[in-house]
Amino acid sequence: MSQALSVLCVGAGGYVGGELLRLLYQHPFVGKVTAHSRSQESKAIGSVHPTLAPLTDARFIAGELDELTRQHDVVMMALEHGESARLVPSILAAQPRLLIDLAADFRIADPSLYARYYGPHPAPELLSTFQYGLCDVNGSSLRGAKAIAAPGCFATAAQLALYPLKDLLGTTSPTLFAITGSSGAGAKPKDTTHHPARAHNLFAYSPFSHRHEAEIVQSLRTWTGRNDATARLITHSGPMVRGIYLTLHAQLESALPPGTVEAALRSAYHERPLVRVLSKPPELTHAIGSSYALLHGCQSPDGKELQVTVSIDNLLKGASGQAVQAMNLALGLPETCGLQAVGVFPC
Known about the structure:
This protein has helices spanning 15-25, 45-48, 65-69, 83-93, 111-118, 135-138, 153-162, 195-198, 212-224, 260-269, 316-330, and strands at 5-10, 30-36, 74-77, 98-101, 131-132, 147-149, 175-180, 203-205, 232-237, 244-251, 275-277, 293-299, 305-312.
C-alpha cells in the first residue's frame, strides 16, 4: 500500500476503544488515528488510556461523524449496543473505504433471530450491507468488504471451537461453558464488575439467554446446512480482568476414531496465523495480551464424547484485535500486521 491509512475510532474512550488505539498507533500501514469520544471530549488520550501516553499527545474529539468520516479511510465503531444502528446510516452515506462495527447491531443477518435475543432491529434494511467478520474462518472472503460486523467475544471463542466440528456433530446440540473477565462489561462500573463483587468470586449470568448465542446459532446453521441446529452457551463471570476460557462438550450419536477431534482442529486452522492448536488444554494467561486464540481438542476413550477448549483475550481476539485483523483482510494487507505481539507472562 503506497499511502498510509487514516482511521477514525468512534467510542475510543472505553476498554475496547483503548485497545483499538493501541493497535492502530503501532500498525505499520496506519498513519493517522483520530479518537472520537463524546464522554471524553478534549481529554488527553494518555490520561484515559495511560499506557498510550508514550505513543501520542493527541486528545479525544467529538465532532460530527459524517464530516469526520470523509476525512478518513477507515471508520471503526466501538459503541454500546444500539448506538451503531443509529449512527451507521449517516456514516455509510459519507462513503468510507471501510466501516467496521464492533457492536452487536449488524452481526445477525436474520431479523427474526436478531429479534429473539435483542428485540426488533432498528435498521433491518442495512443488515445485508455487513459481512460477518469471523476472520479465522471467513478469511479471504473479507477481501474488498466495505462494511464488516466484528463478532462478539464469547461468540468468537465458541465459533472457533465449533467450526472444525461441523461435520462431526450430526444432530447433537453442543454445550459451551465459558468464563469471562470483568473488562468484558465495559469501562463504566456496574454492580457485577465492581472489584469487591468480582474478586475471589464466580457466578453464572444470562441463563438460556446470552445474546452471543444468536451469532453461534447463526454460524452453526450455516456451516451444517441444518436450520434446526442449536448450541447452548452457558456464561459465567470470573475474578480476572481479561480473558475468556471456554470449553465445548458434545455427546455424539456414534463413536469417532481415535484422534479425530485433534485432526479436525489442525486441518481447519493449519493456515490460520493467529490460531494455535495445542497438544494439551491451553491456560488463560497464555493468551492474555495477544490476538491469538489457543485451542485444544480431544475425545473420550470410547469416542462417543468430544471436548474442545479455547483461550482468548476478550478485548483483543474477542474485539479490537479481530477488528484490526478484519481491516487487514478487507484492504489486502498482510493479515497479521500489527497483531503479532505476544502477551506478558505472568500477568
